[in-house]
Amino acid sequence: MSESDRDLKRVFVKTYGCQMNVYDSERMTDALAPAGYVAVDNAEAADLILLNTCHIREKAAEKVYSELGRLRRLKSEAAESGRTVVVGVAGCVAQAEGAEIVRRAPVVDLVVGPQSYQRLPDILAEVASGRRVVETDFAVEEKFDVLDRVSAATKPTTATRPSAFLTVQEGCDKFCTFCVVPYTRGAEVSRPVKAIVAEAERLAAAGVREVTLLGQNVNAWHGEGPDGRAWGLGRLLTRLAEIPGLDRLRYTTSHPRDMDEELIAAHRDLEALMPYLHLPVQSGSDRVLAAMNRRHTRADYLRLIERIRAARPDIALSGDFIVGFPGESDADFEDTLSIVEDVGYASAFSFKYSPRPGTPAATAADQIEESKKADRLARLQAVIAACQKTFNRSTVGSTAEILFERRGRHAGQIVGRSPWLLPVQVEAPESLIGSIGRVVIESVSSNSLFGRLAARPSEAPGRVLAEASA
Ligand code: SF4
Predict the structure, then answer these.
(1) Substitution candidate for ligand 1 out of 178, 255, 283 with most atoms within 8 A of CB
(2) Of 93, 111, 238, 313, which has the fewest beta carbons less than 10 angstroms from its beta carbon?
(3) What is the pLDDT of residue 54?
(4) What is the model's pLDDT at position 287?
């Protein structure tokens, strides 16, 4: 082992949950690079293990505690062979549980909330001096600021994948009554234009062709442009579309109330903005929407969809649904089924309501029994699957521009992303990975498209009109 190998420290970050956590995990390893850490892909090889947790799913905290039980054994085995392993909990469970984690799990050396990752090297120095640290402040501006500098200094000049995430916004002020995000991620904070453009330019220079802007409430993003004017997400996307080499832009996740005219117009005007929009509605019933504090009605949402489709008729729409919200009647649930059909989603995520401690809905008296929730979920998913099939079939015979991302499961096959986000499998040489090519869509399965490279000039890409349009 060389001197430099001895100095090298290894960090393993296990990521749970959403794309924002995937992005944050990368930022954590970026922040640790100046302290001599390199990322490894298994816990057994690591000197520092970080669980980047998610609080959205049911029993999230319990799952983290059970994983910590496994790490306790790993840590004591390492200690027996003279190795020190530091264990940390990050992410939304860290933010929600805070000091309770170090109380319940003695294996944990540090707890760090999503807004404090830039402080990891300092926190580790404290841990090395024998302290157990809990750091859950909401210093989000500082986080963006420090991580921007670290990421500029440590990012490789060649990207490993042709698509990348870029966080532009964090937190949420909406306070939907079922959701923990406003409590775990804090108030809405937007990253400044200059930093976003600089990171996007770095990504493009490294070979990234597609960037997805991330935020818990991404379309609430706002900032001051270099022209001194107030910019919204539509204007930001227009600026990012000017970056040479950045051919594709996406953003997620949006709230219906923050879809303004400029953003809708961006879907009409920007070729780089992919015809895909994840716009959760959660329920089709006005009564439930009010109880959820969504601050829009079913009619507002449907009118919005109409305006978006008028701007970009081939857009693929995706949504989120919760069934069995407290007090949801059979009629309310029927309204949810009908809004799925009215919109004609290309895809949607659906969940049974489960109470999140600390949220208003968790203590509502009229909770729905589990068997009813399960039954409603199965019925909803059948309707969503039918819409998805209709949309997927509408793409067959069209020619689409596909960003080739990786090898397929079989030799000679590569997988790319369609403009509508669905993976597309194509028989084509690996040398095409990282490029955008024209593909004729020939067949579909529930979650994939299958195609061949377009050969003839007549097979030019065209806008596909979903049969399922509202
Ligand atoms: S808008 Fe989204 S993130 Fe914000 S409280 Fe509602 S569900 Fe949670």
Answers:
(1) 255
(2) 313
(3) 85
(4) 98
Contact 415, 428 (CB under 8 A): no
pLDDT digit string (tens) for 221-274?
A: 999 999 999 999 999 999 999 999 999 999 999 999 999 999 999 999 999 999
* Helix 233-240 vs helix 193-205: crossing angle, to nearest 10: 30
Whether ligand 1 lies within 6 angstroms of the CB of 220 is answered as no
**Ligand 1 centre and the CA of 293: distance in Å?**
10
The length of the chain is 470
Q: Which residue puts its alpha carbon closest to atom 8 of ligand 1?
A: 179
| Cα–Cα distance measured from residue 381 to residue 360, given in angstroms and rounded to the nearest whole number | 27
Q: Tally the C-alpha atoms within 13 A of residue 317's C-alpha that lie toward its C-beta.
A: 31
- The secondary structure of 345-366 as a DSSP string is -SEEEEEE----TTSGGGG-S-
Q: Contact 467/457 with Cβ under 8 angstroms?
A: no
- Spans of the chain, pLDDT less than 70: 1-7, 56-58, 138-143, 146-159, 456-470
Q: Which residues, listed in sequence order, are joined to residue 438 by a DSSP beta bridge?
A: 401
Sheet holding 276-278, edge to edge: 276-278, 316-323, 347-352
Q: DSSP letter at 464? A: P
Tokens representing 231 are: 């910019």
User: Residues 140, 145, 148, 151: is their CA dihedral positive or negative?
Assistant: negative
pLDDT at position 155 is: 60
Q: Helix, strand or coil for residue 273?
A: strand
The DSSP output letter for 369 is P
| Alpha-carbon gap, residue 408 to 157, rounded angstroms | 26
Burial of 461 (0-12, 13-18, 19+ CB in 10 A): middle
185 close to ligand 1 (CB < 6 Angstrom): no
Residue 178 contacts residue 293 (beta carbons within 8 Å): no
CA-to-CA separations, 173 to 20, 146, 254, 257, 420, in angstroms, rounded: 17, 24, 13, 12, 29
